[in-house]
Amino acid sequence: MFPAMSLFDHVNLVYGAISEFCTATSCPDMTGPGQRTYLWFDEKGKKTKVAAPQYIDYVMTFIQKTISDETIFPTKYANEFPVSFESIVRKIVRLLYHVVAHLYAAHFKEVLLLGLHSHLNLTFAHLMALHHRFTLIDPKETDILEDLEMALGLNQEAVEAANNNEERDRSEDSRSQSTEDTCGDNKS
Ligand SMILES: [Zn+2]
Q1: Along the 188 residues of the chain, how does pLDDT read in single tens digits?
Q2: Which residues lie closer than 8 Å to 47 by C-beta, 6 or more apart?
Q3: 100 CA distance to ligand 1 centroid (A)?
Q4: How far is the CA of 107 from the centre of ligand 1 (A)?
Q5: 117 labelled as ligand-binding?
Q6: Ligand 1 centroid, distance to 11 Cα (angstroms)
Q7: How many other C-beta atoms are found inside a 10 Å radius of the C-beta of residue 93?
Q8: 107 is in an annotated binding site
Q9: How much distance in Å is there from the Cα of 37 to the middle of ligand 1?
Q10: What does the DSSP assignment read for 71-131?
Q11: Which long-range contacts (CB under 8 A, 24 or more apart) does 157-160 make?
C-alpha cells in the first residue's frame, strides 16, 4: 500500500477522536505552532481563511477523493501513474502535515487525555520519515515542528548537530569554570 494512504488513515483516526473539541468556536483559524495560520487554497488557487474544522474537512475530502481516483492512484496493473503524481503526493503530505501541526498546537491536551499522544507521535514520525526521504514539504513549513522532531529523536542530523553543540558548550563551560572555579553557580 502506498505510505501516504496509511498516513491518511492514522491522521484521520487521531483527528476523528478529538474532532468534537475542534469547532468553529474553539478554532476559528487553522492554526499551527508558533502563531502560524494556514489558509485554504480553493480549486482556482484563491486563498481563503476558514475555521480549522472546515479546513480539515476540505483536506480529508480532497485526499479521500484523490486516493480513490483510479486515474491518479491506479490500483489496476494496466493503469499508469499520471505525470502529476509526484505533485499530488506532495500536496497530500503537506496537507496532512498541517492537520498534524494543528493537533499539536491546539489539541495536544485532548490528545493526551484520550491517550492518543504516542499514536500521534508515531504518525508524525512516519510523516517526517516520508518527508526526509523524498523532501516532500517545503523546509519553510517544517521549521515550526523542528523542536518536537528533535525531542522525538526523528531528525538524526539535527539531533547530532545539537549534541555536538552541547558538547562544545560543555567543554567551554568547563574551561571557564576552571578559570573561575569558586563561583559554583552551575544551575544546569
Ligand atoms: Zn481545532
Answers
A1: 456 678 899 999 999 999 999 999 999 999 998 888 999 988 788 999 999 999 999 999 999 999 888 888 887 777 777 888 888 888 888 899 999 999 999 999 999 999 999 999 999 988 888 877 777 777 777 777 777 777 677 665 655 655 565 555 555 554 444 444 444 444 44
A2: 39, 40, 41
A3: 11
A4: 6
A5: no
A6: 13
A7: 20
A8: yes
A9: 12
A10: TTS--STT----TTHHHHHHHHHHHHHHHHHHHHHHHHHHHHHTT-HHHHHHHHHHHHHHH
A11: none
> How far does residue 131's CA lie from ligand 1's centre (Å)?
24
CA of 142 to the centre of ligand 1 (A): 19
What pLDDT is attached to residue 178?
44
Q: For residue 123, count other CB atoms closer than 10 A to its CB.
A: 23
Instruction: Say if residue 183 carries a ligand binding annotation.
Output: no
For residue 183, the CA-to-ligand 1 centroid distance in Å is 49
Q: How many CA atoms lie within 13 A of 76 on its CB side?
A: 5
111 neighbors 103 (Cβ within 8 angstroms):
yes
For residue 53, the CA-to-ligand 1 centroid distance in Å is 6
Cell of 78: 494496466
What's the first-to-final CA gap in the chain, in angstroms?
47
Task: Give me the count of residues in the chain.
Answer: 188
**Other residues' Cβ atoms within 10 Å of the Cβ of residue 147:** 12
